[in-house]
Structures are given as C-alpha cells and as structure tokens.
Design brief:
There is one protein chain. This protein has twelve helices and ten strands. With about 400 residues, it is of the alpha/beta class. It has one domain: TIM Barrel (Alpha-Beta Barrel). The strands form two sheets. It has an eight-stranded parallel β-barrel with strand order 1-2-3-4-5-6-7-10, surrounded by five helices. Strands 8-9 form a two-stranded parallel ribbon. Strand 4, helix 8 and strand 5 form a beta-alpha-beta unit. The radius of gyration is 20 Å and the shape is globular.
Length: about 400
C-alpha cells in the first residue's frame, strides 16, 4: 500500500503538467487578442493527414484498443479491481495497460518478492479475456544510485539488477499469458530522474530486452512511452523526436518491436491538423516526426503504440469547450472530453503506422475539492464512479470501429 497514492500523483501529475504547458503555448500561438482563437475553431474539423489514408489503414491488421490504468489496479480490493476491469470489457477494449513496478514487487530488498498483488491483476484480466501490456519500471530505494534515493523514478544503479527483475517477471507471467512489455515510462521526462539520459536508458533497454527474451522468446517489447513535449532545459524535458533520435543513434530501435508514444492533443481533437503540428501529427505528418527518424535509422516499419492519450475535465482554471481556448485554460469540459474520446479511435486507425491506442484513464483519482491538481481528472468516470459522457462516446467509437475493422 505504500506507493499507491504517491505513484498515482506523480504519474498523472507530471503528464498533466506537460500537457498543460503545451496547451498554454498553443493558446498563445493560435489565439487572437482577447483569448478567442479562430485558428483553433478552424482546425477542429480539418481532415486527417494525407499520409494516413483510409485505404492504407484498411489494409493493415486490426487496431489494438486498450485502457491504461497506471499503478492503480494493483492496489485495489477485489471488488474495485473487478469494477475497473469490467469497464474495459464494457467499452469493448481488448487490452489493459498497467504498471508492473519494481518498487512494488521488491520494496525491501533483492531477496524479497511481493508478486501476489500483480498476480491478481493478471488472473482477473485473463478471466475477462483481456490482454495485458505491462509497463516495467520504477526503482526500489535499495537499488537506486546513492545520489538519487528519494524518487522511484531514479534509474537503477546497476542496469543488470533491473534486467534480472525483468527476466523474473517474464518467467512468472509469460506462462500466464503476458508477453507484451513496455520498458520504463516516459524516459524523455524526469521520470528518468533527475533528468533524461538517452545513453543510460539505452543501456538499460539493451540489458532488459535481452533478459526478457531469454525467459520468453514470444515477448513483444516496446520502447518506454515517449511524452509529447518540447525540449525545455529548465524542466529537463527532451522532445519525443530528439530523444528518439538519440536512442536510435545508439541502436535502441533495433532492440524493440514497437515504439510507445503518449500524444495528448487536448484541447484539440486527435484528428485536427494545425500549422504547428499536434502530437498526433508528429507521428508521421510534420517535418520533424517519429516515422522519419525510424526510417532514417533503418526501421521504417516499426509500429507506433499509443499507450496513453486522453484529456482532463477539471483543473484550477477555465475549461476549453471545443470552440475556443480561454486564456490559461487548464482542462476541457466533459462534453469536449467526450468529443476527444469519440475522435481518438478513428484518428488512430487512420494512421497506418499506429498499431495500438490506449485511453488514459478509467476513473478520476481526485474529487472536485482537489481541482487545483488537474492531473487527477483524466478518467472516463468521476471519483465516485459516475460515468462521464466520454465513457459512452468511447464505447460507441470502439463499436463503430469494430464493425468495419479489417479481419
């Protein structure tokens, strides 16, 4: 129980801070004086990029659709765990993404394992025919560098120790049907504390992929999910493209089966096209995009897995409602979140490079009294379990996709 609240606040809080900063920059770039934005309204109905043609999308394998829970399911009661996973089934998702935190499993030392909580998640998912994408990361205190002991986002002092844990996890969960692994979360942010380090991350990735495949030859491995941000030395952010190029230069793209990416586009629709390029556009449509880098480094067919995307519905300031961006907007209205949810599946399906998309998240982790922390409100449900309009919108969108998906 020791990590649940802190982990959730850290994970969701940093994602929202990143996206909020991007929103503020977007608003400044696109708004007319007084805070309204004609450019914003115009781009909402723009078509998908030409490179992501529907005909190309129709020729590929069906899109994998999932719900991302971070490090919440592990700590739930059996009843709450059932409710959370039943939501994925009700939505029509076939995958879940959940953290397998090293810090949760071996908090007290290398000789002690606490697998039982994650065992419950895997078994409950399997009972519902849900596939599991496990994000492996987060270092227990005993395994961190001495200079970085206060944050579970600190990388391990010895990559071989992390790789050994990864091997143990694959040995345990491969026979239980878990073969898909994401190595770390957002290593281009200070989730690799205190600052991103492409070389160190590639070293960890190389050791981990080798270890997992030694235990499970069927393993499908993803690069740690890249946050869609601009490079900012003051906050230690490295853009997704700069980080990807740096690790590709070291051979990381040859170690994995897919690239994981977190393109939060709010307050814009995922399908919107803009002059500055939304996070979805940066997959393959802008001058500086992920696929161009992968092509340049010899892996043009490496797929993109969108393992997080979504939008918060509460925060400390005003909300964008789909017609303009109020000055300082920190979140979106519930109706606009529903529009974003409805648009996410077709936008992902329209890009032939995208193989999977996961919505973040299932339920808010805060109450309205905590609206100063907008990071707590990405859920399809309120804190008390009440469904937001986005729940039905995403369900309808998934059903519509499934009716026409390639078989």
């Amino acid at each position: 129980m020791r990590t649940r609240g802190r982990r959730q606040r850290l994970l969701v809080g940093l994602v929202a801070f990143v996206v909020s900063a991007a929103v503020t920059a977007i608003a400044a770039a696109t708004s007319t004086p007084g805070g309204s934005s004609k450019t914003f309204a115009r781009t909402l109905s723009s078509p998908s990029p030409a490179s992501a043609s529907p005909s190309a999308a129709a020729q590929r394998a069906p899109l994998r659709i999932g719900l991302s829970y971070a490090d919440t399911l592990t700590w739930m009661s059996d009843q709450e765990l059932a409710k959370g996973l039943n939501d994925a089934v009700t939505l029509g998702a076939s995958w879940i993404r959940v953290d397998l935190s090293w810090n949760d499993i071996q908090p007290d030392g290398p000789g002690e394992f606490e697998w039982h909580r994650f065992d419950r998640v895997v078994k409950a998912a399997d009972a519902r025919h849900l596939k599991v994408l496990a994000t492996i990361g987060y270092t227990p205190q005993w395994a961190r560098e001495a200079s970085c002991r206060t944050d579970q986002s600190c990388p391990p002092a010895d990559p071989a120790a992390f790789a050994a844990f990864a091997r143990d996890a694959a040995q345990r969960y491969g026979p239980m049907g878990v073969h898909t692994w994401e190595i770390w979360n957002e290593p281009n942010l200070p989730y690799w504390a205190p600052a991103p380090d492409p070389a160190a991350y590639t070293t960890l990735l190389r050791a981990s992929t080798r270890a997992i495949r030694s235990a499970d030859p069927q393993a499908f491995l993803l690069l740690g999910g890249l946050a869609a941000v601009a490079t900012d030395p003051a906050t230690h952010y490295v853009s997704q493209t700069s980080f990807l190029e740096a690790v590709c230069r070291l051979g990381a793209n040859k170690l994995v089966d897919a690239i994981s990416y977190h393109p939060y586009t709010y307050p814009y629709l995922p399908s919107a096209t803009t002059s500055f390029g939304t996070a979805f556009q940066r997959i393959s449509s802008t001058k500086d995009n992920l696929m161009e880098i992968l092509d340049r480094y010899g892996t043009p067919d490496l797929p993109i897995w969108i393992t997080e995307t979504g939008a918060p519905t509460d925060g400390p300031r005003s909300a964008a409602d789909g017609t303009h961006i109020p000055a300082g907007a920190s979140h979106v209205t519930e109706s606009w979140q529903a529009s974003i949810a409805r648009d996410t599946i077709p936008a992902a399906a329209a890009n032939p490079h995208v193989a999977a998309v996961f919505w973040f998240s299932d339920r808010d982790s805060g109450t309205p009294a905590q609206r100063q922390q907008r990071s707590l409100f990405y859920g399809l449900r309120e804190y008390d379990g009440t469904a937001k309009p986005a729940f039905a919108a995403l369900k309808q969108s998934i059903a519509a996709y499934e009716r026409r998906a390639p078989r």
